[in-house]
Amino acid sequence: MKKKCVLAICIAFLLCFLAGAFAACKTNPLNPDALDNYLAIDPDKEYQSVTGFGASAAWWAQTVPVGSQSATDLAESLYSEAGIALSIYRYNIGGGSWDYNAYNEHGAGDFVVFPEYRNTQSAFIADNYDESLSAAENFADPDNYDFSKDENALEFMKLCATQEGSTVERIILFANSPHYLLTVSGKTNGDYAYQSNLPAENYDAYCEYLIKYLDYVVNGLGLGVEAVSAINEPQHSWGGEDAPQEGCHYEPKELAAFYDKFYGYLKEFNAANGTNVKMDVFESGNYDVYKSKGRVMEYIYEMSKYDYFDEIDTISVHSYGSPTSVEARESFIYMLRNLYGDKINIEMSEICDMTAGLDAGMDSALWLSEVMNKDFVDLGARAWCWWMAASCDDYNDGIVTWMWGTEDGKVTPTKRYWVMGNYSKFLDTGDVRIEGSIDKASKGVFATVFKKADGRIVAVLTNAGDSAATITLPSGYASLQAWETSADKDLENVYDGVCGRTYVAAAGSVTTLVFSK
């Protein structure tokens, strides 16, 4: 009996080995010769269309002096062809944490003391609040707003959108918290973790607040706005002593009910102004469907009970929870498609390298490229946005560094900036991701591949390895151009000529390859 068991186990192991060996030897039809590091592409197999690249102006744009050299240099470096040609501008509607002293005084009772730079201005004049009127009446009154209070941020947005050679195509207004006068806690964070901080009786007032900002940007500044995002990372705790910034927790039913209210306000605004401003939902803090506090599908399910859900074709998510996890992305997409088919598209609207200490070099830049690749390939993201565009301290959350509040420019790009440019400068709205990868790849070597309307192929090739990698290129292309970002190159045009059979990707590099017939 024992011998039979041993024999059975041996046979099972042999079958497993043979199955694994067969799978390992299975030939990719796009790489019939089984070549190592082969850029395998199928231009006819199309996936999602690109809808842009961007970053947030939160926390820093309010320090950009109007008319300064800093304003000019920042706008050019971020939102023009002379820079990395970002197309999505994300303006932060503040909750007013700057406007009361509790956040700026240590030891201020139960108030959370944010770092100073995480406070935000609000255009609402709190001193004008009339207790004899409802919150909605107060926040609907245009005389209760002074937009000069956030003049720097608003004028910088206008500069980016109107400068010569501007690449801004989409402006999205987003808020982390309702105004503090509308919250349960009286602050832009909860008294305790997971406190629902916007009471239902103030839904209308918060809608009025958002619409007043929208009206000013559209009719005051003359800028086109694509969408308003009223809620940010609703499943997070946003309360108690550890709340690091403005934020508001919503339960799924609360979020869905508020959106129903806000959708009506947006419809009314669009009808009155001849616009088509959309509701951006719902800035999910993660997409970890298998984590108890992720709850992403709960929020989507509750929204699906309302008529406005029929008008939603895109949701925004953040990639913080599992930034390099293929499993997290695939599990989310599988569940989303199983429930809603192809109705809902994905845009990645926020992420940063959440580590203390500035890493302006290639380590963080290669990480960024890995996250972008997985968001495009495994999540199917159409747009991709970094968190803060400009940072000034030693936290690793900007793509450029600049001493906030200074007028002399001195904008210093990080390697993340240049690597983001490896994507954003070469991909336009409407370009399509196609089947493409590095087959039989060396460790750390991968590619994200797109097709342009004129037939050119754009492959963003990453070699995160410690040694150069020889990439075998697909045949049928006459010319090749290559732009490399590495330790000693900043998006440098390193090749422009005949498309040969191979290309050597430098160690620790990201290279944009453009193939033409």
Helix content: 25-40%
Number of helices: 10
**Strand order within the widest beta sheet:** 6-5-4-3-2-10-9-8-7
Number of strands: 21
Please state the CA-atom Rg, rounded to the nearest Å.
25 Å
What global shape is seen? globular
Oligomer: single chain
Gap between N and C termini, in Å? 67 Å
Question: Main traits of this protein?
Answer:
about 525 residues; alpha/beta; 9-stranded parallel beta sheet; 7-stranded antiparallel beta sheet; 10 helices; about 25% helix; globular; disordered N terminus
Account of the protein in words:
- Helices cover 27% and strands 23% of the residues.
- Helix 2 packs across helix 4 (151-162) and helix 5 (203-220) packs parallel to helix 6 (252-273).
- The protein has a 9-stranded parallel sheet with strand order 6-5-4-3-2-10-9-8-7, with helices on one face. The protein has a 7-stranded antiparallel sheet with strand order 1-14-15-16-21-18-19. A 3-stranded mixed sheet has the order 11-12-13.
- The protein has 517 residues and is an alpha/beta fold.
- It has helices spanning 2-25, 69-79, 135-140, 151-162, 203-220, 252-273, 296-303, 326-340, 362-377, 415-424, and strands at 38-49, 52-56, 88-93, 170-175, 227-229, 278-279, 281-284, 314-318, 345-350, 381-388, 390-391, 400-401, 412-413, 432-439, 445-451, 457-463, 469-472, 479-486, 489-498, 502-505, 509-516.
- It starts with a helix and ends with a strand.
